[in-house]
Amino acid sequence: MRHFGHLAPDIRKTLFHKEPVEFTADSPARTLAAALGATLYSPATRPRLAADVRKQAGRGVRSMVLCLEDAIGDGDVAAGEENLVRQLGLLDEAAAEGADLPLLFIRVREPAQIPDLVRRTGPAVRILSGFVLPKFTAERGVPFLEALAAAESACARRLFAMPVLESPQLLHLESRAETLRGIAETVDTHRDRVLALRLGVTDFCSAYGLRRAPDMTAYDVHLVASVIADVVNVLGRADGTGFTITGPVWEYFRLHERMFKPQLRRSPFLGRAEELRTALIEHDMDGLLREIELDRANGLQGKTCIHPSHVAPVHALSVVSHEEFSDAADILRPERGDGGVLRSAYTNKMNEVKPHRAWAERTLLRAEAFGVAREGIGFVELLTASVPQT
């Protein structure tokens, strides 16, 4: 699979200076973490789950979570498990016939579900990439990770963990530092198994009875923004000790009454995609686009998504611009190993080799996963090409 692989080759050629690389579920963890992109959640109870997964894969989704936790009612867990096992069997049959599937993860409620589901899934476990572990702390996380290790050993297949950081202990100021230290020690011990850390911002807001409006981002809610900053501070460092941390969910996908002006400037769309701008504003996507940009500025990669319409914006804004690629490549040239300062090829900024090296390395990793846009191609062209036609 590859990002934007659902687009025709001639369209990709017009968009990309360097196209995204191909990857599989067996690619190195570093590649998969960078390539998660928009991770689409779906309730495990959906009767046509296998067909839904295949449909979304055809529209560019490259990672999905099949959810047995908050997405379904407490009384639906047994039926959800039964349906999930059956649907995974159908997907395994489709994969055997050549169907392309996204990276698939199961979000469970309790540790015991992991080995049980692996056992019940049987040979179809080969299409699973791992499990999402809810409300992760050091105390709760160890049993989940031990259960995952046992399941991995039983099925002889690599299975990744994606812990969700969403517990009240992490939000509350008096317990945050200790909770973060415990999480850091736990995930470091199981580093080879942890693909990415996910942020449960909806649960953070719930602890204080809050819900952000569609014209506000997670970073406008200061309680949430402070947690994100501390999580990245402890767990997202670029010195080799950090992990990929994914962006919070965007909850909105239908028209709402607006209080504030749209956040999308008109000029990038003039003469090219004014109708797209109008549609994005009408469906509150301007707030999503703003939040995606703030995610990256704050050290987050990829995003949790609950609606297919969110996928194309996340992926369009994940493509590395030609200017970013030019700067990163210049910074990482072998002859720059001694450091120094240079003017960018675009002659609009300073590139300082040593301080910008970690940024450049991360940018080139993103370029492998999402490609490099041609000079003059921006997110408007990428988004216009990527939005599914109905």
Helix content: 40-55%
Topology order in helix (H) and strand (E) letters: HEHEHEHEHEHEHHEHHEHHEHHEEHEH
| N/C terminus separation | 23 Å
Strand content: 5-15%
Stretches with pLDDT under 50, minimum 5 residues: 256-260
- CATH architecture title of the largest domain: Alpha-Beta Barrel
Biggest sheet descriptor: 8 strands, parallel, barrel
CATH class of the largest domain: Alpha Beta
Question: Any overview of this molecule?
Answer:
This protein is of the alpha/beta class. It folds into two domains: 1-21 and 320-390, no CATH class; 25-319, TIM Barrel, CATH 3.20.20.60. The chain is built from 16 helices and twelve strands. The chain has helices spanning 9-15, 29-35, 49-58, 77-96, 113-121, 138-155, 168-171, 173-189, 201-206, 222-235, 274-282, 285-297, 311-316, 322-331, 353-370, 379-386, and strands at 16-18, 38-43, 63-67, 103-107, 128-133, 160-165, 197-199, 245-250, 303-305, 341-343, 350-352, 372-373. The protein has an eight-stranded parallel barrel, surrounded by four helices. A two-stranded antiparallel ribbon has the order 1-12. Helix 2 crosses helix 15 and helix 8 runs parallel beside helix 10. The longest helix is centred in the first third of the chain and has 20 residues, at 77-96. The protein is globular and about 60 Å long.
